[in-house]
Amino acid sequence: QAPITLNGASQFGDDHPYTKAMIRFEELVKRYWGKPINFVLHKNSSLGLEKQYFEYMAQGRAVDYAVVSPAHMSTFSKAAPFVDAPFIFRGLAHWNQVLEQDLFKPVADEVEKRARVAMIGYGGGGVRNIFFAKPVRNLAELRGLKVRVQGAPIWSRTFAAIGMSPTVIAYNEIYNAIQNNVIDGGENEAAGVEQMRFYEVAPQLAMTQHAITIRPLCFSVQTLNRLPTDLQAAIRRAGREASAFHREAESGADSQILETLEKAGKLHRVEFTDRAEMKRLVDPVMAAYAREIDAESILNRINALTA
Amino acid sequence: MLLPAPGAPAALRLLNRALAGAILWLLIVAVGILVIPVSLQIFSRYTTLIPSYIWTEELARFCLVYAVMLGAMLAVREGTHFTVDVFPRLTPKGEAKVELLSGVFILLFAFVFLWWGWEFTEFAFYRISELAELPLWLIHMVWPVAGLVWLLFEAERMLDAAAVLRSPGEKHS
Amino acid sequence: MGGNILSPGEAASILFGIFFLLLVLRVPVAVSLGLACLPILLIEPRLSPMMLAQETFNAYNSFILLAVPFFLLTANLMNIGGITDRLMHFSRTLVGHFPGGLAQINVVLSIFFAGISGSSTADAASQSKIFIEAQRKEGYDDSFSVAITAVSAVLAVIIPPSILMIVWGGVLTVSIGALFLAGIVPGLLIGLVQMATVHAYAKARGYPTYPRATLGEAVRSFLVSIPALTTPLIIIGGKIFGWFTATESACIAVLYAGFLSLVIYREMDMKGLVAALADTGRLAGVALFCVGTASAFGWLLAFYQIPQALLANVQTWGMGPIGVGFFIALVFLVVGCFLDAIPAIIIVGAILQPLAQGVGMDPVHFAMIGIVSLAFGLVTPPYGLCLMIACSVAGMRIKDALKDTCIMLLPMLAVLAGIILFPQLVLFLPGLISPEFLR
Ligand code: NA
Ligand code: NA
């Protein structure tokens, strides 16, 4: 009988933390299971984008595992984008604590039930900042600026609460839109800024640290259920560990990327002085949003953490 | 004065004409609407009179999906889908033969869209779109509908072609 | 749960075998591409024909593609609303006295349009509407009109802005700014050789030349055309002042053309507007439906990693930079015959990148070789979208326009060879204006 073959997909090339995490996942599964198994990783968006990988995993077809942004799961579960919402975490320590205590388990359970896709580990760790052509240091300077946000309601609501003018523009139009002054800025983690070369048109990075990404490593439940139980256990374990590796790699790489860009004179980090005030403006919006999607208790537990 | 139409039965002809009319109007609406969300998106950046909606981008995309699928439906009736024609100029009977041959494959393609397009629609039940929060099956629904419409349109074309083959002499032009 | 049932070789022969067989049987291109996928989707347990629906949906559900119906609608409104007629008359007073004057305008206008539009599909469709009928009226051969309109439309993705450059920059991490600058010189060179080609044709075939217009005539037609002439100014101005993005500017063009037709020239009524919308929907449906099934076809090529398998041993051939450059151009020219340019970049670009890096080719140089080759693919059958559109508007068979298209492609291919041999042609401008963009 032919060995089991699993198909993975990544939007990025070998150097990106998502791809690295998936390669680590493959290595760990091989090690923990100890029997012959093949992995085919489709890189560089060759099978489409994360949203589509998720749909394929939900159908139990073509793609078996992939790192997917929670924002792309929203058609299955309205609560999914909450995992990755802005202004939830006070900092990396808080973020780590939330993940260690698995506070998003109810959301993950709902996604697994509705989409038949399991989140077998939480990667991520990119800190998102806003990039502009000119330096922006505080709330007053931020007011009224047109900033491109991700297409999920919570993003535009929180950014509007801060006084910015959130704008929805396709991801691959951001570069041009900033170059032509259609928008003033956009927001992303270091890996995205580097990948899309946003620093060429918007070299002033306002260190708002408004979000820390969570990028679950997902696995199709339909595929998983067809596998031998000892392999399922190996996959679950490898998923957790590969994602821990992913978190460490990405949160480490994050500042390294920015430092390298800054040293090359391509980017300037601009200190943002009003982060606490910004969070205060957003809190009521977040609370209302959590009520809307029945995630109040999760939000309360997150806020109650001490880190 | 109505002559008995050769080929496709009159009922099918009537049904298809009504269908094509409805599809054309939907298509006109879809293309016309296309302009609205994108205009809103632009002007909301310059005036506070127009609120900045986040669903504009998604609505525009969905209108595009509808426009493409509706346009593709009509194109089967009108025979305007792009072909790479390597045959020399054919007689009307030759044309009819080619129409019948290629029609078989269009019917097969239409069946694929109908059958698996329905599965595609089922996959969208109980799901809402990301921004406009529209029921997703409304969008996916166009696939099985396209399949069904193509079956009807192509059937008429093929029955007409068969009638040309049956007809004596070369009267048709 | 094993691996794939079909080997990459078997999958490739099914895909291409059925595709070509159905094309010969005069099955529409879009249907042939879709049906070629069908056996594979049925055979592989981990795939399903539902993916045909899924992948076509993914292709159409794209904001960037919106520019296509918008630019189409603009052209339709201009035609119906009397804008085109006035621009034609004015242009004739300007360059009508050159050999093949109207065809020269066709090329020059494409260069100009290319600076506004990033989509060759839209350019081919809109200019086919304008020029093919007009050239027919003035006695040009249909095959010549179709060919020159199609090949000049490819400039839209070579001269910035360009959808292909945005996609390439995003997928392969190349500076989009540098790509934009790099496209200017090759684009102008290709436009120039096209004008020379028109000149040669016009001399050989005696295409019409008009008597030079009097100054008064020129001024009069200019004044009448002023509101229409400001259309590109609004689009360019809007981009310079940052009022809207590339896709949005297409929507602005629609609004402005509608305004002129309804309010200024008043040649369009409700009936005309409805006709323009219907026409736009019809052509957009046909042109974009193909893109969907081509994407599904490309998705399967990627799933079996067929390009990887084909290109696995290339690195062992020991080619130098020039050899690699020609090889890359050849691969993209061939791929461009079967795939839409966007899936081609995603699927093939990433595979060829290490090859280019291996010989120390500048990423911007590599990108421009790829983009120009893929742009030529827009007029090479069987899947040559611009050529299909021009033929469809003219009511012609692709076969009958093929010879003139091939003749016109020859000098364009010479420019491509020039780009490969002299990297400075593309690297000069980015290096001059923003050297930090180059690695
Ligand atoms: Na042209
Ligand atoms: Na362009």
User: Which protein chains are joined by the largest interface, and how many residues does each one contribute?
Assistant: B-C, 55 and 61 residues
Cα shape of chain A: globular
Low-confidence stretches of chain A: none
Gyration radius of chain C, rounded: 22 Å
- Strand portion of chain A, in percent? 15-25%
Bound molecule types:
sodium ion
What would you call the structural class of chain C?
mainly alpha
- List unreliable stretches of 5+ residues of chain C: none
Protein name (chain C): TRAP transporter large permease protein
Organism (chain C): Siccirubricoccus soli
Main location (chain C): membrane
Membrane topology (chain C): Multi-pass membrane protein
Could you characterize the architecture of this molecule?
The complex is a heterotrimer of chains A (307), B (173) and C (439). Chain A has 307 residues and is an alpha/beta fold. Chain A has twelve helices and nine strands. In chain A, strands 1, 2, 3, 4, 5, 6, 7, 8 and 9 form a nine-stranded mixed β-sheet that branches. In chain A, helix 1 runs antiparallel to helix 10. Chain A is globular, with a radius of gyration of 19 Å. Chain A starts with a strand and ends with a helix. The mean pLDDT of chain A is 90. The N terminus of chain B is likely disordered. Chain B has 173 residues and is an all-alpha fold. Chain B has one domain. In chain B, helix 3 packs antiparallel against helix 5. Chain B contains five helices and no strands. Chain C is globular. Chains in contact: A-B, A-C, B-C. The interface between B and C is large, with 55 and 61 residues.
Tags for this model:
heterotrimer; A: about 300 residues; alpha/beta; 12 helices; 9 strands; globular; B: about 170 residues; mainly alpha; disordered N terminus; binds sodium ion; cell inner membrane (chain B)
